[in-house]
Amino acid sequence: MDSEDQKELLGESLQGTPTVVPGQPTHTRKLYLESYGCQMNFSDSEIVASILSEAGFATTRDEDDADLILLNTCAIRENAEQRVRARLRQFKQAKGARPHLVVGVLGCMAERLKESLLEQEKLVDLVVGPDAYRDIPNLVDQVHGGQKAVNVLLSREETYAEISPVRLDANGVTAFISIMRGCDNMCSFCVVPFTRGRERSRDPESIVREAHELFDAGYREVTLLGQNVDSYKWNIDNKGVVKNESEPVVRFAELINRVAHVNPDLRVRFSTSHPKDMTDDVLEVMAKHENVCKYIHLPVQSGNSDVLKRMNRGYTREWYLERMAAIRRIMPDCATSTDIISGFCGETEDEHKDTLSLMDMMHYDMAYMFSYSERPRTLAQRKYENDVPPEVKSRRLQEIMAVQKVHAANRTKSYVGRTYRVLVEGTSKKKEDQFFGRTTYNTVVVFPKENAKPGTYVNVHVQDCTPVTLIGKMTKNEPSA
Ligand code: 5AD
Ligand code: SF4
Questions:
Q1: Residue 339 CA: which ligand is closest?
Q2: Which of 8, 12, 76, 345 is the best mutation target for the ligand 1 pocket, counting ligand atoms within 8 Å of the beta carbon and taking the most?
Q3: From its phi and psi, is residue 53 left (phi > 0), alpha (psi between -120 and 50) or beta?
Q4: Is 370 within 8 Å of 340 (Cβ atoms)?
Q5: CA 207 remoteness from chain centre
Q6: Which tens digit of pLDDT belongs to each residue from 247-270?
Q7: C-beta 420 within 6 A of ligand 1
Q8: How far is it, in rounded angstroms, from Cα 362 to Cα 377?
Q9: In this structure, are residues 105 and 126 in contact, taking their beta carbons and an 8 Å threshold?
Q10: How far apart are CA 320 and CA 339, in angstroms?
């Protein structure tokens, strides 16, 4: 599946992607920035590019041309970390021939690996955690002064609210807006609460302003990003801090409402919801606004209540089924996707089968599927044995993927024969004479370009499909969705 087919949200991709922004005359130094992991990291890289642009850095796609190389890293599974280490060893070699080159690590690997990366393996000059990006220009100066530089302090307030992200590798049509940082949930498998710190929400006014600016610049879709968007809250009277429930508070449903009102032609998506916190008012506000896309990513992780308890997810299988039923009650046509982990600590064959049976009930449009990877400091690492053998984890993962492949193909097929309102994103990667765009259900549609333009809406009648892509033709007929 390529990125045209499915855009990653907070699921993982291990693609290290270099990003680029055009230089201006005042930009005398060059930054090469490579991002790994979830969409939140890619969004953070846009903040980092903005901070460094102010400090005189233009970004480059050519690592050989860079004065500063930064890797924005992911720690969610072990193989993500291994890839970053391999890449850092390549850069260390490059430094032999370019003594002034500064190499740094940002993001989720920073806190845990600062000593080993800086001192033991001496792979990097600079280590900066997710809440310390404003400090990068000073830290680079510190490195030029002959010191190693590190700032991995986590903050309870930092949201980079007023920093205008530099849109990296932008298609000019779709953009991400970070609405909160950190996570307080403590799912037992997850390292995020340790790497990204406590949950905090961003001022809704700055979020709405960013959405307006994007719309004025021609963007037509925003995705509101957070580890757990359903717990978004901002106290209007008290710079965000909510002390008790009777205060005037903007919650997630109200935030969606405000962003949806920016313009009816601005599509709104969000990720990631949490089954324990997703309330009906969020679903109702989605149903009310045509421009809020009918698509929810609701990670289940496992279909068995005992496993969910060990995962510390805060819900049971029955609760999850009820939340999915609420989605279908309030928005009968809503598309859904999920995250699933195979082989969590103590998972029996029957517990695994519960995951497969839940999938058979849900028929997700899409799923991000992983085998469990033990992460340092997490509750699971301290409390449970990582006792499902690797070959069993991987066999279970294959079974999960096989089921999902059938469901996804059936879901795609079910969209054939109708007309959809499609936001045109750009030229299809496979066919130069075709555009691709998405339906409200986040399904990719390809169609002949004719006189369409990226960043506009067209009606496309879908006549055929591959397992993940719809194939159609523009029409003057009214869309059914
Ligand atoms: N092992 C495997 N998958 C994990 N995820 C988070 N932590 C782990 C881990 N230790 C998955 C979860 C989460 C997604 C972003 O990554 O499914 O929803
Ligand atoms: Fe990790 Fe759970 Fe928070 Fe998601 S909600 S970031 S899985 S702790």
A1: 1
A2: 76
A3: alpha
A4: yes
A5: 17
A6: 679 999 999 999 999 999 999 999
A7: no
A8: 33
A9: yes
A10: 13
The finding on whether 369 has its CB within 6 A of some atom of ligand 1 is: no
CA distance 445 to 216: 26
For ligand 2, which residues put their CB under 6 angstroms from it?
Answer: 183, 185-187, 190, 192-193, 227-228, 274
Give the model confidence (pLDDT) of 339-363 as tens digits.
999 999 999 999 999 999 999 999 9
The answer, as to whether pTM is greater than 0.85, is: yes
CATH architecture group of domain 419-474: Beta Barrel (2.40)
Give the strand order in the sheet containing 267-271.
174-178, 221-225, 267-271
In 3D, which of 10, 2, 476 has the Cα closest to residue 223?
A: 10
Beta bridge partners of 338: 367
CA of 1 to the centre of ligand 2 (A): 25
| Residue 407: closest CA among 340, 463, 327 | 340
Render 282-345 in DSSP notation, one character per residue.
HHHHHHH-TTB-SEEE---B-S-HHHHHHTT-S--HHHHHHHHHHHHHH-TT-EEEEEEEES-T
| Domain regions of the chain by residue span | 7-151, 419-474
CATH superfamily of 7-151: Methylthiotransferase, N-terminal domain (3.40.50.12160)
7-151 and 419-474 agree in CATH topology:
no
